[in-house]
Amino acid sequence: MTELIERDLTVPRSPAEVWEAVTDPAWLETWLADAVTLELWPGGEAHFVIDGEERTGWVEEVSPPPEDAAAGPARLAFWWTVGDQPATRVQIELTPSGAGTALRLVESRPLQVLDLVGIPLPGHSNHRPGPALIAA
Amino acid sequence: VSEDRAGAVFGVLADPMRRRLLAQIAEHPATATELAGELPISRQAVAKHLSSLADAGLLARERSGRDVRFHVTPAPLSEAVSWMTRVGAQWDERLGRLSEALGDGP
User: Of B19, B72, B106, which is closest to A10 when you measure between CB atoms?
Assistant: First the structure.
């Protein structure tokens, strides 16, 4: 049972430009949500209004595009939830691709079965629950 | 999930090994023997944990030759499929808007 959604997109912009489009609230309000608060540090607040529905959460990882592309993708990860629904994790990764940028979006419910019954959801940089996380 | 059911489930999941077993079976159905091969506990201990998880309604049993294979109960699974369909469609729309704003990809 793999509970995740993956989408890939390539755009003719630099990783730095795309990073702005996925982290700057003014940009996010053009494509993701009607209102956005996003504190760009681990543990920061994430708050969205989408079609009149409030989503609250927190930021897990903020890794802007590295100067050396070999250092790995830029990555933004946050958790969000609507009301008392199970929290889900959203991850956006940016990798240089030719003259543009490849964007990979993953939304996952790593511990949905546990969350469903009220076990607190810890955050983790890996979207698959590893044994260490489960045993924690 | 009723409160009684949630209470029973919470009790069962209070054990780290049972949480670990549930996560592994959620990835792919398995028998007690297979799971014991991957974990530092005996097959008997694994079987006992699996019975607790099944009693709480989190796992279902399925005959597999002479063995019993465990899988997560169908309810969360079909719920997962509907979640992936619904949320996937939302991302298609959002990323369509983003792609348009940033110019079409090569």
Answer: B106
DSSP string, A65-89: PPSSGGG--EEEEEEEESTTSPPEE
A30 and B101 in contact by Cβ < 8 A? yes
Is 50 exceeded by the pLDDT of residue B28?
yes
The number of residues in chain A equals: 136
Closest Cα in chain A, distance from residue B67 (Å)? 21
- B60 vs chain A: nearest CA distance in angstroms? 14
- B65: distance to nearest CA of chain A, Å? 23
Whole-structure pTM value: 0.61
Residue showing tokens 């369509």: B96
Q: Alpha-carbon distance B86 to B6, whole Å? A: 26
**Three-class secondary structure of residue A18 per DSSP:** helix
Phi-psi region of A76 (alpha: psi -120 to 50; beta: other; left: phi over 0): beta
Read off the pLDDT band of B9 (50, 70, 90).
low
Give pairs for A92-97: CB < 8 Å, separation 24+.
A92/A22, A94/A15, A94/A18, A94/A19, A94/A22, A94/A65, A95/A15, A95/A69, A96/A14, A96/A15, A96/A69, A97/A10
Q: Report CB contact under 8 Å: B103, A11.
A: yes
User: Chain-centre distance of CA B84, in angstroms?
Assistant: 15
